[in-house]
Protein: Mg-dependent DNase
Amino acid sequence: MGPALVDFHCHLDLYPDHAAAVERCERDGVFTLTVTTTPKAWPRNHELAAATRHVRVALGLHPQLVADRAHEIGLWEEYLPRTRYVGEVGLDASPRFYKSFDTQKEVFARILSLCAAAGNKIVSTHSVRATKAVLDMIEQYMPPSRGRVVLHWFTGTAAEARRAVDLGCYFSVNAEMLANEKRAAITKVLPLHRVLTETDGPFTQTGGHPATPSDVRVAVEGLARLHGISFNDMSATILSNLKGLLAEGIR
Structure:
């Protein structure tokens, strides 16, 4: 057995059997951050994960749902003291969701401000066609001394990656980000000490089925090839990065 695997962005409550998905993470020994898309989903997620060793739940309000659910930010705020993990949150400027972009920014600003005020939160952040705006808001509302942002499925430029590193950000990398040369090129510039792995299951596929947390090994394999190191060394690096992130104890 090599080092344990890490899936730092997955949607366990969107699989057909939520409880079984949680149990499978526990059985397979995959350290999994399950994100939620609405605060209403948080209590049930928390209940299923509370007794596990490997599963932690993030409190989210997905930018793609903000148009209909911005009012749930009050409920999100109510639950925030009960978790260290926040996500999925962020900004989405793709054509389908751009009409709510101003509202998304208001919600994300409030989320970052509240996380900064609380201190020591870890925030899994969505950014589609909005990397600069996301980084601007992290810089404005959540300095590195007040918490950590993990950029999920980063698609920005090399310069934006450097800026994100300067802002204290980590990156969670999935197999899709390594699927071709162009995508892999930006992933290669991310400093290895800030890299975690993710599946974003069930929204990604592995072998023709929705990816599950244990499928995160495909991302580990891809990163190992990209950096010319062994699978075991890469998975050990990812695990070490996770332990470092959790131990930072930012206040």
